[in-house]
Amino acid sequence: MSITEILFWGLSALALFSAIMVVASKSPVHSILYLIVVFFAISGHYVLLNAQFLAIVNIIVYAGAIMVLFLFVVMLMNLNAESEPKKHRMMQFAGLISGGCLFLVIISAISDTQHASNMVQMSTGGDGLIKNLGKVLFKDYVLPFEISSVLFLSAMIGAVVIGKKESPPTPKGGDL
After folding, report:
1. Which CATH number fits domain 1-79: 1.20.120.1200, 3.40.190.10, 2.40.10.220, 2.40.50.100?
2. Among candidates 16, 24, 23, 22, which has minimal Cα distance to 41?
3. Among 2, 67, 167, 168, which residue's CB has the most CB atoms within a 10 Å radius?
Protein backbone atom coordinates (compact mmCIF):
# COMPACT_ATOMS: atom_id res chain seq x y z
CA MET A 1 0.00 0.00 0.00
CA SER A 2 1.50 3.31 -1.09
CA ILE A 3 1.62 6.54 0.91
CA THR A 4 -1.02 8.18 -1.32
CA GLU A 5 -3.43 5.32 -0.67
CA ILE A 6 -2.85 5.60 3.08
CA LEU A 7 -3.43 9.36 2.90
CA PHE A 8 -6.57 8.84 0.79
CA TRP A 9 -8.10 6.34 3.20
CA GLY A 10 -7.09 8.41 6.23
CA LEU A 11 -8.60 11.59 4.80
CA SER A 12 -11.73 9.67 3.75
CA ALA A 13 -12.19 8.24 7.24
CA LEU A 14 -11.65 11.68 8.76
CA ALA A 15 -14.16 13.27 6.37
CA LEU A 16 -16.79 10.61 7.00
CA PHE A 17 -16.36 10.70 10.78
CA SER A 18 -16.53 14.50 10.83
CA ALA A 19 -19.58 14.55 8.53
CA ILE A 20 -21.39 12.14 10.84
CA MET A 21 -20.43 14.30 13.82
CA VAL A 22 -21.83 17.40 12.05
CA VAL A 23 -25.24 15.76 12.08
CA ALA A 24 -24.94 13.97 15.42
CA SER A 25 -23.53 16.86 17.47
CA LYS A 26 -25.94 18.53 19.90
CA SER A 27 -24.20 21.91 19.84
CA PRO A 28 -24.49 24.00 16.64
CA VAL A 29 -21.03 25.46 17.25
CA HIS A 30 -19.51 21.98 17.48
CA SER A 31 -21.32 21.01 14.27
CA ILE A 32 -19.76 23.97 12.48
CA LEU A 33 -16.31 23.07 13.78
CA TYR A 34 -16.73 19.50 12.55
CA LEU A 35 -17.80 20.88 9.17
CA ILE A 36 -14.53 22.81 9.02
CA VAL A 37 -12.68 19.51 9.54
CA VAL A 38 -14.69 18.02 6.65
CA PHE A 39 -13.62 20.89 4.40
CA PHE A 40 -9.96 20.41 5.33
CA ALA A 41 -10.21 16.68 4.58
CA ILE A 42 -11.76 17.42 1.19
CA SER A 43 -8.95 19.89 0.52
CA GLY A 44 -6.51 17.09 1.29
CA HIS A 45 -8.22 14.99 -1.37
CA TYR A 46 -7.81 17.86 -3.84
CA VAL A 47 -4.09 17.99 -3.11
CA LEU A 48 -3.82 14.24 -3.71
CA LEU A 49 -5.52 14.76 -7.09
CA ASN A 50 -2.98 17.47 -8.03
CA ALA A 51 -5.59 20.25 -7.82
CA GLN A 52 -3.81 22.62 -5.47
CA PHE A 53 -5.84 25.65 -6.53
CA LEU A 54 -9.11 23.94 -5.63
CA ALA A 55 -7.65 22.91 -2.29
CA ILE A 56 -6.61 26.46 -1.40
CA VAL A 57 -9.88 27.97 -2.62
CA ASN A 58 -11.82 25.37 -0.63
CA ILE A 59 -9.92 26.28 2.53
CA ILE A 60 -10.15 30.04 2.01
CA VAL A 61 -13.76 30.25 0.85
CA TYR A 62 -15.50 27.45 2.71
CA ALA A 63 -13.42 26.76 5.80
CA GLY A 64 -12.62 30.44 6.17
CA ALA A 65 -15.35 32.77 5.04
CA ILE A 66 -18.48 30.60 4.99
CA MET A 67 -17.78 28.93 8.33
CA VAL A 68 -17.09 32.27 10.01
CA LEU A 69 -20.42 33.47 8.63
CA PHE A 70 -22.15 30.36 10.00
CA LEU A 71 -20.53 30.87 13.40
CA PHE A 72 -21.69 34.48 13.56
CA VAL A 73 -25.24 33.54 12.58
CA VAL A 74 -25.40 30.75 15.17
CA MET A 75 -23.97 32.97 17.88
CA LEU A 76 -26.31 35.85 17.03
CA MET A 77 -29.36 33.57 17.07
CA ASN A 78 -28.79 32.89 20.79
CA LEU A 79 -30.00 29.31 20.60
CA ASN A 80 -31.10 27.66 23.83
CA ALA A 81 -33.16 24.67 24.90
CA GLU A 82 -36.44 26.63 25.07
CA SER A 83 -36.20 27.81 21.45
CA GLU A 84 -35.53 24.35 20.00
CA PRO A 85 -38.39 22.79 18.07
CA LYS A 86 -39.80 19.57 19.46
CA LYS A 87 -38.60 16.42 17.75
CA HIS A 88 -41.19 14.21 16.16
CA ARG A 89 -40.39 10.54 15.54
CA MET A 90 -42.31 10.59 12.26
CA MET A 91 -40.15 13.43 10.91
CA GLN A 92 -36.98 11.60 11.94
CA PHE A 93 -38.21 8.45 10.22
CA ALA A 94 -39.07 10.42 7.06
CA GLY A 95 -35.60 11.98 7.08
CA LEU A 96 -33.98 8.57 7.46
CA ILE A 97 -36.02 7.12 4.57
CA SER A 98 -35.32 10.08 2.26
CA GLY A 99 -31.61 10.03 3.10
CA GLY A 100 -31.45 6.30 2.38
CA CYS A 101 -33.23 6.80 -0.95
CA LEU A 102 -30.79 9.58 -1.90
CA PHE A 103 -27.87 7.31 -0.97
CA LEU A 104 -29.23 4.52 -3.19
CA VAL A 105 -29.76 6.89 -6.11
CA ILE A 106 -26.19 8.21 -5.81
CA ILE A 107 -24.73 4.70 -5.60
CA SER A 108 -26.69 3.54 -8.65
CA ALA A 109 -25.70 6.65 -10.63
CA ILE A 110 -22.02 6.15 -9.81
CA SER A 111 -22.04 2.44 -10.59
CA ASP A 112 -23.66 2.99 -14.00
CA THR A 113 -20.99 5.40 -15.23
CA GLN A 114 -18.07 4.17 -17.27
CA HIS A 115 -15.66 6.50 -15.44
CA ALA A 116 -16.23 4.77 -12.10
CA SER A 117 -13.82 1.98 -12.96
CA ASN A 118 -11.09 4.24 -14.39
CA MET A 119 -8.02 4.93 -12.30
CA VAL A 120 -7.56 8.52 -11.17
CA GLN A 121 -4.32 10.15 -12.27
CA MET A 122 -2.64 11.26 -9.06
CA SER A 123 0.41 13.51 -8.70
CA THR A 124 1.01 13.60 -12.45
CA GLY A 125 -0.22 15.70 -15.32
CA GLY A 126 -0.88 19.39 -15.34
CA ASP A 127 -4.66 19.61 -15.33
CA GLY A 128 -5.12 20.99 -11.85
CA LEU A 129 -2.11 23.28 -11.68
CA ILE A 130 -2.59 26.95 -10.92
CA LYS A 131 -0.40 28.02 -13.83
CA ASN A 132 -2.69 26.43 -16.41
CA LEU A 133 -5.80 27.76 -14.71
CA GLY A 134 -4.34 31.28 -14.58
CA LYS A 135 -3.48 31.20 -18.27
CA VAL A 136 -7.02 30.21 -19.24
CA LEU A 137 -8.63 32.58 -16.74
CA PHE A 138 -6.71 35.69 -17.79
CA LYS A 139 -6.53 34.89 -21.51
CA ASP A 140 -9.91 33.43 -22.48
CA TYR A 141 -12.14 34.62 -19.63
CA VAL A 142 -10.67 38.01 -18.69
CA LEU A 143 -13.89 40.00 -19.30
CA PRO A 144 -16.18 37.76 -17.17
CA PHE A 145 -13.47 37.66 -14.50
CA GLU A 146 -13.30 41.46 -14.32
CA ILE A 147 -17.10 41.81 -14.38
CA SER A 148 -17.41 39.37 -11.48
CA SER A 149 -14.75 41.27 -9.51
CA VAL A 150 -16.73 44.53 -9.92
CA LEU A 151 -19.89 42.67 -8.88
CA PHE A 152 -18.19 41.32 -5.75
CA LEU A 153 -16.84 44.78 -4.90
CA SER A 154 -20.30 46.33 -5.20
CA ALA A 155 -21.76 43.51 -3.07
CA MET A 156 -19.18 44.18 -0.33
CA ILE A 157 -19.90 47.91 -0.39
CA GLY A 158 -23.65 47.20 -0.27
CA ALA A 159 -23.19 44.86 2.70
CA VAL A 160 -21.26 47.52 4.59
CA VAL A 161 -23.88 50.19 3.83
CA ILE A 162 -26.77 47.91 4.82
CA GLY A 163 -25.03 46.70 7.98
CA LYS A 164 -24.00 50.17 9.14
CA LYS A 165 -26.19 51.42 11.97
CA GLU A 166 -27.09 55.05 12.13
CA SER A 167 -25.83 56.76 15.23
CA PRO A 168 -28.44 58.49 17.38
CA PRO A 169 -28.49 62.27 17.06
CA THR A 170 -26.27 63.97 19.59
CA PRO A 171 -27.81 66.64 21.80
CA LYS A 172 -26.78 70.20 21.05
CA GLY A 173 -25.91 72.79 23.59
CA GLY A 174 -28.20 72.74 26.64
CA ASP A 175 -30.46 69.88 25.49
CA LEU A 176 -28.96 67.45 28.01
Report:
1. 1.20.120.1200
2. 16
3. 67
